[in-house]
Amino acid sequence: MTLNLHLVRLFVAVAEAGSFSRAAEGLWISQPAVSKGIRELEHQLDLTLIERGAGKGFRLTEAGASLLTHARGIFAMERAALDDVRARVGVQRGSLTLGASTTVASYWLPPQIAAFCAAFPAVVPRVTVGNTQWVCEQLLECRIDLALVEGRVDADSEARIDVREWTTDPLAIVAPPDAALPRRGVTAALLGRQNWILREPGSGTRQATEALCAAHGIDAPPWMEMASNEAIARTVASGVGISMLPRVVVADMLALGTLRELKLPGVVLSRPLYRLSLKNRPLSPAALRMAQILDAS
Q1: CA gap 240, 228 in Å, rounded
Q2: Predicted confidence (pLDDT) per residue in 250-297, tens digit
Q3: CA distances (Å), origin 271, targets 82, 133, 205, 255, 263
Q4: Calpha distance 100→127 (Å, rounded)
Q5: Which CATH architecture has domain 87-167+273-296?
Q6: What is the predicted pLDDT for the residue at 90?
Q7: Distance (Å, rounded) from C-alpha 141 to C-alpha 106?
Q8: Is 69 helix (H, G, I), strand (E, B) or coil?
Q9: Bridge partners, residue 129, by sequence
Q10: Phi, psi (5° rounding) for residue 276?
Q11: Is the model's pTM score more than 0.70?
Q12: Contact call for residues 174 and 242 (beta carbons, < 8 A)
């Protein structure tokens, strides 16, 4: 049995568009031609890939979802091969799509982007930003070439993702400037009695906060959740709650005195940042050069 890649492209287009008609529009062909191609692919594979509903909706079968995962990997390898061939024949163009969690994208990645653009001005990188969980999903779906995240990869994903520690991100526990708390020598018990503002589930900052609090005996259930480190910092500065945040986020506010840092005696708070790539997907020339820049920084 061989895969007809033209029919597989039709199937991927339908699955990603969520609609036969939208897929047809994107491919500049008729909807009947798309429907016929999907039926032919199902016939060749002797599998049902799409379950049609009573209306216009559909859902992927288990076989369809599996094929979609493999197809994304196949076409990602195709793009990497084309980029490599073009680079070898002197066409200094290519694509580079990076995924980064929010703190990395805002504070750690810009100097690396600048170094890459200076070295390879013909390649314009594209950066997509979300929390760690979302970025990992984008990598697994072959929508990005490399990822830089703050949180750990879950066990199921780690089987397919190459995880490398990239750098260390210092953290700080912050409180309002007029909080009735000691600046130094604060205890875990005292911190456990405060109102903690945490990032949303799936965030690397949330993972780090929960892990470090557990390691140091701090009871820090989320009193409030926010999807932005900057929003949390400004909320705390306004007099509401405390939080643990990356030091790069709060450094200016600490220097200006709009936030206070609370220190546990003898404890240095930090977390690793990670560089991620797919294990079985070769990096394009542009992605390989970016990885080298990241590893050298």
Answers
A1: 15
A2: 999 999 999 999 988 888 889 999 999 988 788 878 888 899 999 988
A3: 37, 17, 9, 22, 16
A4: 7
A5: 3-Layer(aba) Sandwich (3.40)
A6: 44
A7: 24
A8: helix
A9: 100
A10: -120, 145
A11: no
A12: yes
Question: Per residue in 222-235, pLDDT tens?
Answer: 999 999 999 999 99
Q: How far apart are CA 156 and CA 161, in angstroms?
A: 9
Alpha carbon of 108 to those of 59, 100, 111, 144, 247: distances in Å?
Answer: 39, 10, 7, 18, 12
The residues spanned by each domain of the chain are: 5-81, 87-167+273-296, 169-270
> Do 5-81 and 87-167+273-296 show the same overall fold?
no
Residue in 250, 246, 220, 221 with CA at minimum distance from that of residue 235: 250
Indicate the class that CATH gives domain 169-270. alpha beta
CA neighbours closer than 13 Å in the CB half-sphere of residue 228: 7
CA angle (17, 19, 24) in 5-degree steps: 80
Q: What's the CA gap between 215 and 223, in Å, rounded?
A: 20
Question: What distance in Å separates the CA atoms of residue 131 and residue 53, rounded to the nearest whole number?
Answer: 33
Angstrom distance (rounded) from CA 253 to CA 256: 5
Stated length of the chain: 297
CA distances from 237 to 72, 170, 241 (A): 45, 20, 9
- DSSP structure string for 209-220: HHHHHHHTT---
Question: Phi and psi at residue 62, in whole multiples of 5°?
Answer: -60, -40
| CATH code reported for the domain at 5-81 | 1.10.10.10
